[in-house]
Amino acid sequence: MFIKTREYQELFLEALRAGIRGQRVAWKERSVQEWSGVFALADMHHVLPLVYEAVAECRAAALADRVMFAKVREKSLRLMALQRTMTEGFLELYAHLKQMGVKPLALKGIVCRSLYPDPDARLSADEDLLIAKEQFEACKEAMLLYGMQQLNPETGTENYETAYKKTGGFLVIELHRMLFPENEKWCIGWNGFFDEIHKQAIEREVEGVKINMPQPTDHLFFQFCHARKHLLASGVGIRQICDILLFAEHYEKEIDWKIFWDRIRMTDGILFAEAIFHLGVQYLGFEEKQFYFPEGLHSMKLDTERLMEDILHSGIHGKGTRSRLHSGTLTLHAAEKRGLSGIFPGLFYMAFPPAKNLLWRFPYLKKHPYLLPFAWGQRLCGYLREGPVLGSVKEIVKTGRKRKEILREYGIFGEQRRCIKHGKVS
């Protein structure tokens, strides 16, 4: 459910702004509808514990519906306890991997979580590890020895990322051979920027365990690229924006800002990157930093309000609504065509996607690609079971059109993209 009332959005952002700093709001009175709207948005963006901690002690909370608050408190504590279990499991796994002689790089989750006042309040569905190609098999064997099992083993391990889950546990690991798929037009050449990522890695201690991670310039650039990936699909959520801003603030003196902005320019990410920093200042209480805006950028007029509206609509990874989730097929198809795809070709692509897009859902296509029409039929039957199709298609088209306008405004389709090969402009 998306909360459309702007007031609820503003209250949600105020609470989140306090939560990421370990601060408390000073609300004196709030209606049941306002509390429901704020908590619904927080839950949709997977930041409920952060928001609950920020509002729990204000006067308005003492006057609020006790049953509702008790449920929110119980859910927040349960989510934080689960996160604590997953974090401990990850740190045990990482220590095991190092003991077995493999050194993967930790990305996003555990690194970003350590930047929050209460790390367990920043939830992660999984943890991401990047392993050098020559160590992939050794890392896989070490993970299996620890008790991790591959999810969807029918798909093999040739993809750029492979998911593993702890047997009888909750820990999920996305093991990356590379950071982005090599055969997708929207990210062509991006992996080349990270050719030296393992050689330039740094080591940081997290809860007594020494973790290898990309050096801050690489890591921040990766986070921006990853956010653009989600924005291009169904949407990027506010938690991901908070991660980027807290990371840039924490590592500002270790980041080579010239290299960062040069890479952003080479991948047509200037408008999006500038907008993210503007959002931090405008909505989330971050101080304006000169190095956020190189000469010639800060004077640009950006409609950050539309982007923030899209982010709030998104929920976590674009899963806020059914129509938004499915509209990602339209925007991804437009990206393949550099923004030139019309609605009807996009709808055809959505109804009959190529086999590579369905492997995660229908693993049998890897060995039996000739069964693609059967997979299309299975997929369509699934949609029919979800409810009326015509109304859903209309909403998907409406959402897709609106999002394509925003993506084009921020240059995400790369209509003017120069040829990038191996991280260099040619």
Please tell me about this protein's structure:
This protein is an alpha+beta fold. The protein contains 16 helices and nine strands. The chain has a five-stranded mixed β-sheet. A hairpin with a 2-residue loop joins strand 6 (202-206) and strand 7 (209-213). Helix 1 (6-19) crosses helix 2 (32-44). The longest helix has 34 residues, at 66-99.
Keywords:
single chain; alpha+beta; five-stranded mixed β-sheet; two-stranded antiparallel sheet
What's this, in brief?
By secondary structure, the chain is of the alpha+beta class. The chain has 16 helices and nine strands.
Give a topology summary:
Elements: H1 6-19, H2 32-44, H3 48-55, H4 59-62, H5 66-99, E1 105-107, H6 109-113, E2 127-130, H7 136-146, E3 148-150, E4 161-166, E5 172-176, E6 202-206, E7 209-213, H8 216-232, H9 238-250, H10 257-266, H11 270-283, H12 304-314, H13 322-336, H14 343-351, H15 372-386, H16 389-409, E8 420-421, E9 424-425
Parallel strand pairs: 2-5
Antiparallel strand pairs: 1-2, 3-4, 4-5, 6-7, 8-9
Tell me the distance between the termini: 45 Å
Number of helices: 16
Order of helices and strands: HHHHHEHEHEEEEEHHHHHHHHHEE
Percent range for β-strand residues: 5-15%
What is the mean predicted local confidence, pLDDT? Answer: 85
Helix content range = 40-55%
**Radius of gyration based on Cα positions:** 22 Å
Identify the strand order in the major beta sheet. 1-2-5-4-3
Structural class: alpha+beta
Stretches with pLDDT under 50, minimum 5 residues:
415-426
Overall form? globular
Largest sheet: 5 strands, mixed
- Number of E-type strands: 9
